[in-house]
Amino acid sequence: MKPLKQLLRPEEVLITRALLHWGVYLPALLLTIPLLHYLSIPITEWFQTNRFDGLFLIPLAKKKLHGLAIWFPLSMAAYVAAFMLRESRQALLTSRGLILMHRFGARHIRRLRLEQVRKLEVEQGAPGRLLHYGHLHFTLRDGSRITIPRIFRPERFQARLQARLELLPPLES
C-alpha cells in the first residue's frame, strides 16, 4: 500500500479515514489459542518437576512442542493476511473528494470528486451495531456502486461525508 502522504495531493487535506474493523484479526486470534496451549504444556511440566536447571527444558520442549510446527506458521500467516487486508481496505475523505481502496493489497485505488457521489448507505446488523462496524455502500452518479465491507465506525464517516456533500452547490439535472 502507498503511504498516506503519497496518496494525498499537495493541496489536499485529510478530513477523516475509515479503516477495516479490528475483528479481521479474530481468525488469527483463534489460531493462537492452540499455539498458547502447546507452549504452556512444557512450561507447566517443567515447574512441576521442581528442577530449575535450564537444560531440563530443552528435551521436554522437543517432546511436547510438535504442535508448534503446525500452529505457529498458520497463526503467523493469518496475522499477516489480516494486517494486509486491514491496510488495503480504506476510505479517505479529503478536502477535494474521496479516495477508495477496496481490493486486497490496495492495488485498486479510486479517486472520486464529491460531486460524483450520489449517496452513501451504511449497512449494520445487530453484531455490527454492538461492535461498531458496518458496510459502506457508495452509489455514484453514473449508477455504479462500490462497497467497502466491515468498516470501523461507519456512521462517523457517513456523517462527515454528508456534511461535506451539503456544502456543495446543488447539481443541475
Question: Your description of this structure?
Answer:
This protein has helices at residues 4-7, 26-48, 57-64, 68-88, 126-131, 154-166; strands at residues 14-19, 89-94, 97-102, 109-113, 117-123, 133-140, 145-152. The strands form two sheets. Strands 1-2-3-4 form a four-stranded antiparallel β-sheet. The protein has a three-stranded antiparallel β-sheet with strand order 5-6-7. The protein is of the alpha+beta class. It is 43% helix and 27% strand. The mean pLDDT is 76. The two termini are 38 Å apart. It is built from six helices and seven strands, in the order αβαααββββαββα.
Annotate the secondary structure layout.
Elements: H1 4-7, E1 14-19, H2 26-48, H3 57-64, H4 68-88, E2 89-94, E3 97-102, E4 109-113, E5 117-123, H5 126-131, E6 133-140, E7 145-152, H6 154-166
Helix pairs in contact: 2-3, 2-4
General shape: elongated
Strand order of the largest sheet: 1-2-3-4
Count of individual beta strands: 7
User: How widely separated are the two ends?
Assistant: 38 Å
Helix content: 40-55%
Rg, rounded, reads 23 Å
Q: How are helices and strands ordered from N to C?
A: HEHHHEEEEHEEH
Task: Describe the structure concisely.
The chain is built from 6 helices and 7 strands, in the order αβαααββββαββα.
